[in-house]
Structure formats: C-alpha cells, structure tokens
Amino acid sequence: MTKKGKVVLAYSGGLDTSVAAMWLTEQGYEVITMTADVGQQAVDLEAARSKALRSGAIKAYVLDLKKPFVDQFVWPALKANGMYQGTYPLNSALSRPLIAEVMAEIAEREGAVAVAHGCTGKGQDQVRIEVCTNALNPDLQVLAPVRDWHFTREAEMEYAEAHGIPVLATSSSPYSIDDNIWGRSIECGILEDPWNEPPSDAYTLTCDPWDAPDEPEFIEITFEKGIPVALDGAKMDGPDLIAALNERAGKHGVGRIDMLEDRLVGFKSREVYECPGAITLLTAHRALETISLDKRVLAAKKELEVKFGELAYEGYWFSPLREAINAFIDTTQEYVSGVAKVRLYKGQAVVRGLRSPNSIYSHGLATYSEGDAFDHEAAVGFIKIWGLPIKTWRQVHESKEAIEIPAQ
Ligand code: ARG
After folding, report:
1. Distance from the alpha carbon of residue 103 to the mean position of ligand 1, in angstroms
2. Looking at residue 291, what is its pLDDT?
3. How many angstroms does the Cα of residue 306 sit away from the middle of ligand 1?
4. Is residue 224 classed as helix, strand or coil in its secondary structure?
5. What is the CATH number of domain 5-70+89-176?
6. From 176, 201, 232, 352, the catalytic residue
7. What's residue 172's pLDDT?
C-alpha cells in the first residue's frame, strides 16, 4: 500500500465518520481526527477520542470551540439579525466555516496533505466546508469519503463490525440531526413529506407550546454594542448565556421552526429547527435596534441582512462581501446597547419592554399628553411640500375610478 500522507478528518464519533477514519487508513492515509465541541447536546468527547483511535486514527484532537464559535460566528450573525429566507437562524451553516478553519490550521501544524469530512453529496455542508477550505488553503486536498464510496447503511455497519469499530445500532435516530449551541437542525425520514406534522420525538430542546407552563416568564437581556452580555442583570459569557436561554426559552416551547428551504444545491427541502436561545436573542436584538438606530440605517441594514444570510448559507463566509457587510454592521452596533424585556409564553418570545442609554425615542416628541414638544404649526408647511409631487401629478392626469357612493 502506498503511503499518501496525513489527513485531518472532521470527526463526530458517529458511524459515518468512524468508518471514514478506518477507510482512509486503509487507503494509505495517516488519519488525524478533529472533534469539535460547539455546544451540541449529548456529546461524549472522551468517548469520541478513544473511538477515533480505535477506528484507525493516529491522533485525535478534541477541542472546545464554543467560545470562538460564539465570538467569531454567532455574534456577527446576531448583529446581522442573520436568518436565511427570513426564517432559518443559520445554526448549522455558521459552524462549517469554523470547522474548515480549525481543520486547515491543524493540517498546517501536522503537515497534512488533505482534510476530510463525512458529508454526503446532497447537502450543503459539503459545499461550505470545501469552499471555505479552498479559500483558506488552496493547497489542501479535500476528501469526502462518505460522498464517494457509495456504502449503504448496512454496508457501513458490516464494515465497522469487521474492523472492530463499536456500533451503536440500537437507538439510531430516524432523523438526520446537526446540533450546536445556536440550535438544532432536524431533517429526513417522515419530515420529507411536507404534509406531515413533525412528530414530538423530533424535538429535544423545546417542549410543545401547549404543554408549556401556563404562567409566562419574563427575562431581561442586556446588550452592549449589539452583543448580549447579561441575563436578568447577571453578567455571563456568550456560550453560558446562550445555553441558559436555550433552557429557559425551550421550556416555554420557543424557537420551533418548520420550513421549506431553498437549498443551494438546487432543490427544496423540508427543514425543522429548534433554536430557543437564538430566536429569543434575535427577537430581543431586533427590537433594541428599533429604539437605538436611525430609520434609514435600519432600512439599509435590513437589505444587507438578507445578503448576509445568503452568503453565510451559501458557504461564502470568507468572502470579501460578507466581511464588508459585517464591517458596516459593526459601525451600526456601536449604539445598540440597553435592555430588552422579553416574555416567554406558549411558544412565543415577545418583547415587552425596551430601555437604552442611546435611545432616540423622545417622549416629548411622541406624547399626546402633557409635555408635548412637537411643533404642531410646522405640520402645515410640511404637509404642503410633502404632498406637492402627487398634487402636481393629479392636476395633469385623470383621477382613478371613483368609488360609487349610493344616494342617501
Ligand atoms: N438545512 C440546514 C443547512 O443546510 C441544516 C443542515 C443540517 N445538517 C445535517 N447534517 N443534518 O444549513
């Protein structure tokens, strides 16, 4: 067998990537695995390490990446109110450039010739990881054994058994799951028929809204320059704050999403998500912007947010446009500080109060009561000028069909 050099494999500890580790070893590669803790549920990192080594790896990296994930990917997305198609908070999409970046760095350190991932040929995670890797280090080959080998599930199990890889065939999920601190993506199985309501076993972070507590819960989220820094007045670092919100909002059934998504790879897909912390923070952040940002900045930002969502979704994280958009957004976020009071109740996170040291809401201008500071006389001239173009037009062009008013 010819030696092919070292390869860094993104390793979850599941069947696909374990078989991939062994298979790459048999192809003549020296496999180094990289398991990332991005805040996914129920991940046994030490078990992943020993399983990697039993699956042929010569070395296993197990890394806590929650902090860089939140600081460098989640917060820029939150500041951009990042949602794909206005609905999906990009939880899976945001983790891929991080994984690509870390793998490229390890590859450099270890002198590897390639990186590898366990994505199939139908998803967009393969696109994101490969586009990001090529952008960061074009000399690295990218291998996708699961996409290329055409193993069936049964063949994978047989292969694993024959090579002494422990297989947990018992409670394999009927869904394809991807999971991190920003949310959980649920696909496949019964969900592929858009008429089917997602069964309750699809969810693990949120309860059904009608099983949620009958009492609402109020929380206060403090932001500094667009980033949440405290919950109910208690300072928290990013990953802890999101984890706490996942718990509290999840208990109220907040953050369930069910959509038909337009995939980058050309077809529509039924996608279910549960993102209790993300939805709560996005709701609070968007509201805080309304009290602290100028109307035209808000409008221009909204257009760029759509673009941001597409770029993050489509694997263009390291593109100059994504970076330029975030640079613009960062200048707007200078002013997005303050507190949003959010009510969690029966599947909804609703903002019930706002306070900001940079508030440009003026009570004097807005009030209809005592203390009114608005210049009422100025309205007369304003209306004259504001209406002038339409008045001029109507003097030249015929009026639209009249509304018929019956005689009285
Ligand atoms: N549709 C989402 C996306 O492309 C979710 C991907 C989830 N990945 C998975 N392997 N189940 O961003």
Report:
1. 19
2. 98
3. 19
4. strand
5. 3.40.50.620
6. 176
7. 65
Atom of ligand 1 at shortest distance to CA of 271?
A: 1
Dist. CA 53 → ligand 1 center (Å): 27
Place of tokens 């998504």: 261
Q: Is 148 a catalytic residue?
A: no
Residue 157 pLDDT > 90? no
Q: pLDDT > 90: what percent of the chain?
A: 87
Tens-place pLDDT, residues 279-297 = 999 999 999 999 999 999 9
- Domain borders along the chain are 5-70+89-176, 178-355
Rounded CA-CA distance 284/278 in Å is 10
Number of the ligand 1 atom closest to the C-alpha atom of 269: 1
Ligand 1 centroid–CA 271 distance in Å is: 8
Pocket test for ligand 1, best of 94, 125, 184, 260 (most atoms within 8 A of CB): 125
pLDDT above 70 coverage of the chain, percent: 99
For ligand 1, residues with CB inside 6 Å are 92-93, 123-125, 176-178, 185, 187, 261, 271
Residues 389-398: b if buried by 16+ CB within 10 A, e if exposed:
eeeeeeeeee
| CATH numeric code, 178-355 | 3.90.1260.10
Contact predicate 287/351, CB 8 Å: yes
Give catalytic status of residue 16 as yes or no: yes
In this prediction, residue 393 has a pLDDT band, given cuts at 50, 70 and 90, of very high
Tokens of 360: 């440009």
DSSP for 263-311? -TTSSEEEEEEE-HHHHHHHHHHHHHHHHHS-HHHHHHHHHHHHHHHHH
Residue 193 falls in the annotated catalytic set: no
Global pTM value? 0.95
pLDDT for the residue numbered 135: 98
Instruction: Convert the pLDDT of each residue in 315-367 to its tens digit.
Output: 999 999 999 999 999 999 999 999 999 999 999 999 999 999 999 999 999 99
Residue 282 CA to residue 284 CA, distance in Å, equals 5
Q: What's the mean pLDDT in 388-396?
A: 95
Question: What mean pLDDT is predicted for residues 132-138?
Answer: 98
* Ligand 1, atom 8, residue with closest C-alpha: 178
Instruction: Tell me whether residue 319 is one of the annotated catalytic residues.
Output: no
